[in-house]
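dumping this here so i dont lose it
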């Protein structure tokens, strides 16, 4: 929210809250200053000139001012707190309590009043109501709220003017997105299939539709259904870009409520697979939702699945389905999606097949123009060829870094140790242990610990040493496991200058421009900061543990004097860093979508230069084998942002990609065996890419440019 001098806000405050200096922030007040999750220091000032410092915490929905009760010590005041913005370079507010006498004494003059510099006219009928209140009469609060709501709706402009745009953050909508939103709201009445090509911003369009309905009080209860891997991403996007707080189905507060959480929480982001389970679906299907959003809606293409049946039975006023590939194998899939939105729009399935599907070719429409006319009432599809959205070329380069003998010993030795101990754990967990033989000391390494340590080995010795030290301090181990952990902890801690950090310094000297360096681990980040500082190139640091002002300071430093920003994954989420045009994957995520997320900080609309991607990997590592598959087999670094997700969606598995890689690594006796297994995975990815491209071409033939938004009709 943009604050301006003179802005005033009122909060109802109980005497108890006033005395305690802890004021709950209801509704939109929690977003008044900064991100809902990041507290901001504020100062409250009384009319006498006294002031008291406080903290505005949107995340906890709380304004804490310990000395608030000392600001006003006059008798006969109600708990009505007025906040007035005094200046915008720092959040300073003026505070005062309105006296009870001022509220009730005298008659109400319907003539204009001056309230905070704004002339306000009371309608004569309203004046009579206020007069009655002054005389001691009472009106039901719900009647007042209903009356106020009706007036707000009457004063709200139509959908040709979007009221939510001033409240967007970190996003500037394109004309095709705004046209899509207006078409959905005006012509399609909030029930639409958003089918833009990958990379054109379907999520932004859905977010603006959602924001419009919420701000106009046309929606309150909202359910967002997405694949499991996108739950957190959707929650963060809605909070960061649209200032909307949603709870996820796996949040602790949500899980504590059990099935009743679906009724209690009004805005929820949940995975398909969680929501459709019987124990959850029974409650969800009883909740009257105002808006349901389904991302990756091609998962609903089969009307015989549990998921389609579940969505079809949801109580919802508005429904948005998002997919870049509405038709994958059969035009019947399109029929099933449209039926969720507008039953009968495409007639019955039998009539649809007869009138619109070529016999013998279920993907070919019999009357393409006639089908498009029907779809124009429920479907919006923008194509990259007809929009101004364009991205500059990417140039990817792999830098092989030869490790020292000690580094090679650490990597190969600890990898073998982890594989052996993790396999032992899997075998022992499959056997029943007699209750009289409790486990006194652990011998096995868990799968999660193995995955973390193996990734850290691909990053830096410091990262692995930190986790090994943590394991030694927090767990009780059997002697043979304890000896191994100590040995590799000591070896990792004894290594001095490592080959990858030397390679980064060399790259920085030869590049001559700004570099965004990504690492997953804080220990690696701190190590690189020391190395670059010693080389005469001090770096700015960005990570999730920084306060908001510290994060902004790091970005300003990178935009200004610092040539290097070393960022953890927190920098891959939402930040626009396109003033730079080169990034380094110091360690390579095992999930291709995380790699794409990193690249998206630079390779985005508005970037005017080629984007250079440098991947630092050591021979014989998991990362080297994975990079070979992603780069050589599917040309990942040349894909449009969002396409890797479409390709992964073609794989016949619901496993996270990181878990797939871990399974292949655990099943391999050595690195050569792992390379062979991951090579087979690469063949599957290549087949998935070809399938995606075929689907994209078929959809272009079916829909063409006829479904681009054109406003209301």
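and the seq i came up w/
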């Amino acid at each position: 929210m943009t604050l301006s001098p003179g802005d005033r806000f009122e909060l109802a405050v109980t005497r108890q809250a006033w005395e305690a200096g802890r004021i709950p922030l209801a509704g939109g007040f929690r977003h008044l200053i900064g991100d809902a999750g990041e507290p901001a220091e504020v100062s409250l000032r009384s009319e006498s000139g006294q002031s008291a410092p406080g903290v505005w915490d949107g995340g906890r929905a709380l304004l804490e001012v310990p000395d608030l009760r000392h600001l006003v010590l006059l008798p006969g005041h109600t708990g009505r707190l007025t906040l007035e913005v005094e200046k915008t370079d720092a959040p300073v507010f003026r505070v005062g309590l309105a006296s009870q006498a001022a509220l009730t004494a005298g008659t109400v003059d319907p003539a204009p009043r001056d309230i905070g510099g704004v002339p306000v006219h009371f309608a004569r009928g309203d004046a009579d109501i206020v007069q009655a209140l002054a005389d001691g009469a009472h009106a039901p609060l719900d009647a007042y709220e209903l009356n106020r709501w009706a007036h707000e709706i009457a004063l709200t402009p139509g959908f040709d003017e979007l009221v939510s745009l001033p409240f967007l953050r970190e996003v500037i909508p394109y004309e095709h997105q705004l046209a899509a939103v207006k078409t959905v709201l005006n012509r399609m009445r909030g029930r639409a299939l958003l089918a833009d090509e990958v990379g054109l911003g379907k999520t932004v369009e859905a977010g603006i539709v959602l924001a419009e309905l919420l701000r106009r009080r046309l929606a309150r209860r909202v359910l967002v259904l997405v694949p499991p891997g996108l739950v957190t991403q959707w929650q963060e996007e809605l909070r960061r870009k649209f200032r909307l707080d949603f709870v996820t189905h796996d949040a602790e507060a949500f899980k504590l409520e059990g099935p009743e959480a679906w009724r209690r929480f009004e805005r929820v982001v949940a995975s398909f697979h969680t929501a459709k389970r019987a124990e959850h679906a029974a409650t969800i299907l009883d909740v009257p939702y105002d808006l349901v959003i389904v991302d990756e809606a091609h998962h609903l293409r089969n009307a015989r699945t549990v998921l389609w049946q579940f969505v079809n039975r949801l109580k919802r006023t508005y429904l948005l389905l998002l997919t870049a590939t509405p038709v994958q194998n059969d035009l019947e899939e399109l029929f099933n999606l449209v039926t969720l939105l507008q039953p009968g729009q495409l007639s019955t399935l039998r009539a649809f097949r007869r009138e619109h599907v070529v016999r013998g070719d279920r993907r070919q429409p019999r009357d393409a123009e006639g089908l498009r006319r029907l779809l124009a009432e429920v479907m919006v599809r923008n194509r990259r060829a007809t929009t101004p959205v364009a991205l500059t070329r990417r140039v990817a380069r792999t830098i092989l870094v030869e490790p020292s003998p000690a580094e090679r010993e650490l990597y190969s030795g600890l990898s073998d140790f982890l594989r052996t101990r993790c396999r032992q754990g899997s075998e022992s967990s499959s056997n029943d242990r007699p209750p009289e033989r409790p486990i006194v000391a652990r011998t096995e390494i868990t799968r999660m610990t193995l995955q973390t340590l193996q990734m850290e080995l691909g990053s830096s010795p410091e990262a692995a040493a930190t986790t090994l030290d943590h394991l030694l301090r927090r767990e009780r181990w059997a002697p043979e496991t304890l000896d191994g952990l100590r040995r590799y902890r000591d070896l990792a801690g004894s290594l001095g200058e490592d080959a990858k950090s030397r390679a980064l310094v060399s790259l920085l000297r030869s590049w001559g421009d700004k570099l965004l360096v990504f690492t997953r681990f804080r220990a690696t980040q701190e190590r690189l900061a020391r190395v670059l500082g010693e080389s005469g190139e001090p770096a700015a640091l960005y990570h999730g543990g920084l306060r908001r002002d510290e994060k902004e300071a790091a970005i300003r430093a990178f935009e200004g004097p610092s040539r290097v920003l070393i960022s953890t994954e927190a920098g891959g989420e939402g930040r626009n860093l396109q003033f730079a045009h080169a990034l380094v994957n110091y360690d390579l995520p095992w999930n291709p979508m995380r790699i794409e997320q990193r690249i998206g900080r630079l390779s985005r609309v508005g970037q005017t230069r080629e984007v250079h991607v440098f991947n630092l990997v050591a021979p014989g590592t998991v990362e080297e084998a994975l990079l070979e598959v992603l780069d050589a087999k599917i040309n990942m670094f040349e894909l449009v942002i969002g396409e890797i997700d479409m390709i992964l969606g073609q794989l016949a598995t619901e496993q996270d990609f990181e878990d797939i890689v871990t399974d292949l690594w655990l099943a391999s006796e050595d690195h050569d065996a792992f390379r062979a297994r991951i090579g087979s995975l690469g063949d599957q990815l290549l087949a998935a890419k070809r399938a995606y491209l075929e689907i994209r071409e078929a959809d272009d033939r079916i829909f063409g440019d006829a479904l681009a938004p054109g406003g209301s009709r």
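The first helix runs from residue 15 to 20.
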